[in-house]
Amino acid sequence: MKSKKLVCLGLSAVLLASVAAFAGCNFANTQKPGDDVDADDNKEASVFLTVGVHQNSAEKRLMQTWINAFQKKYPEVSITITKQYSAMSSLIEYKTGGTLPDICWTAGDQHAEYSDPVNMGYFRNLADEEKFEGSAQFYSGFYDELIETTQLYQGEGGRWFVPRDYNRLVVYYNKTIFDAMDIPVPTDDWTWEQFNETCRKLMTKTNDVKCNKAIEWRNWAPLHYTMVKNFGASYVGSDGRFEFDSAEGKACYDWYRNWIRSSAVVGEGGSFSAYSSRSAATPAAAMLVDTYAKLADYAARAETNNWELNVAAFPNFKQEDGSDGYTGVGCSGYAITTTCTDETKLEWAWKFLKWCMSPEGYDTVAEIGVLCPALKEMNNSGEWLNYDVGGTVINYNAYVATSSNDLDVNFQSVLPSTTDQGHLVSCALTMWNNAPTTDWNSAISKFKSTYESATGIK
Q1: What average pLDDT values come out for the chain (458 residues) when binned by 10 residues?
Q2: In what order do the strands lie in the sheet with 326-330?
Q3: Bridge partners of 119?
Q4: In whole angstroms, what is the distance from residue 293 CA to residue 314 CA?
Q5: 98: left (phi > 0), else alpha (psi -120 to 50), else beta?
Q6: DSSP states along 43-93
């Protein structure tokens, strides 16, 4: 895949003596982070659909752009965003109050509880060809790991939402710092050993620049599970019984505790906080783990703080047998709710989502810079490769690199019970939250006892 232009940023004044200056340039795309997209008033419509989206300016902007374009193609349909929410638990309130939209945004690793017809039953099974014609063919176009995510649990076979994005973990980095310290920039085929050596160099003073830590390591379930899998461990087995109390589990946990203390800032990404709190000569960190979804935000942060952004694939953690390691992949998407019962509305809701997740639909929102398409056919094609905020070349191959194996981050989907899935997620996250201050014996004892008590699986 050819790299495309993204961002041209000026160097910080602190580094002017160390590296060559770049020419300053501005965002060339029309949808700079924070801009709104006005809703088109479709007065010719005879069919009316409602949509709920995540409470995020980029999410609303994305959906409204799709809506406006779709309504121009099909003026008989009017689609309105009626709900914005920060957590999927808000859907309970909407359902109870009779205001659940026809289409709802969902996180791929959180949908099962709401999809499960035995539990809440909020979402329709889109695998039903009688209601959703062409479903099997449509879903065959998505990455395999994303298809697995749409099920209630492994092997269940349902399709409870439409995947929207291919969110593979990548490493964003501050190229200005790398250049100032004469450190080679990472490549998509870098190994875990090369990653560790890069971290060491970033924390070693060179040319009067020294990073306090090498990377902002997100306190994030998909990232935790990626490393669990890379160490050859698992939280639970196929029967749901606890398995993390193993030599592999201990090795992963001990690595994480030492890693956080020595090389990483624990963070949540989002605003590149690790780069904005200090001068360029004493940066908090020079790298961060995230996905394509935050590209526009990070580009804006780079422009604001006068450094150059680039990205590399997640480093390959080779397994003991020499095979490639794993990189977590997840997605979000949109479900059609069970409150959408009118046959005409149901038909149009399905048609709308299929159009959004088509090459035309993806190209329509490419300028916003928040989606790596979930379609395999767009792996190296489409307008998403042309997201342009200036002049410097960005490595788009990082988002779809094949130097390691894709890992479905829905580790809880091994459990058929969606309630137990939630217990496993919360127990694991509690353990990692407390890891920096808790030794292995205490941590594993608490994790195991809490999980077994909550699920009754022993």
Answers
A1: 34 29 30 67 90 92 96 96 96 97 95 94 97 97 95 96 97 92 97 97 94 90 96 96 98 96 81 55 85 86 82 95 95 97 97 98 93 96 80 83 94 94 96 95 98 97
A2: 167-168, 326-330, 405-408
A3: none
A4: 15
A5: left
A6: TT-SEEEEEEEESSHHHHHHHHHHHHHHHHH-TTEEEEEEEEESSTTHHHH
